[in-house]
Amino acid sequence: MALSLCGLRAPSKPEAGERWAARTAVLLGPSETNYVAKRTPSAVSRDTLNTDKLEEVKKLFTAHLENKGLRKTGERYAILEEIYARSGHFDVEELYAGMKERGLQVSRATVYNTLDLLVEQGLVSKHQFGRNLAQYEKSYGYRQHDHVICTECHKVVEFCDPRIHGIQTMVGDLLNFHILHHSLNLYGICGDCRAQAAARFSASST
To answer: Is the dihedral of CA 32, 129, 117, 123 positive or negative?
Structure first.
């Protein structure tokens, strides 16, 4: 499960930046979902299901379905529960395969349609991460965070920096906007990939 920096205080002085960066570099870890990895539904990382939060989410989803005049089917609620039992990011095929692995009978079309409804309601977040394959994660009751993505291995690392929230608030005040949410994805090459590239270069030079 990816770690968050939301509990850390950002440095108030420029000279503290390097120490803060070193501290956060130790705390940050890769998300357990690497979307180019081989899919193994039985090895999906799962959270301990918070039943109180799940009931809140179900009530919100029920209200959304009723407002849109849509049926409240068992399949849709099974998909919702599966999502909130997971940790990290997932794509549609991972979610579908994971449910089939657990003996839950849902169609791929229902998974797609339900995800669209959950994203529309704000109960699930959708990310592209610079590729055609969309990634999803549960969002209700979870602190908003941002992502760093490796362009080589496509590893996703989650982070939360309170200074970003401060910028969001400041921009909203200056431009007279009520900011609802933001999306920030940083792209680069992770340390593992740089080390592998350096090793290959060193081997080819000898």
So the answer is: positive
* Alpha-carbon torsion, ordered 181, 75, 88, 149, to 10 deg: -70
Helix, coil or strand: residue 91: coil
pLDDT attached to residue 31: 40
Q: At what angle do helices 108-121 and 92-101 cross, to 10 degrees?
A: 120
Segment 136-174, tens digit of pLDDT: 988 876 767 788 889 898 888 888 888 888 999 999 999
Helix axes 74-85, 51-67, angle to 10 degrees: 140
Question: What single-letter DSSP state applies at residue 131?
Answer: S
Mean pLDDT of all residues in 34-44? 36
Label residue 46 by pLDDT band (50, 70, 90): low
* Domains of the chain and CATH, by start: 1-30+144-206 (3.30.1490.190), 34-142 (1.10.10.10)
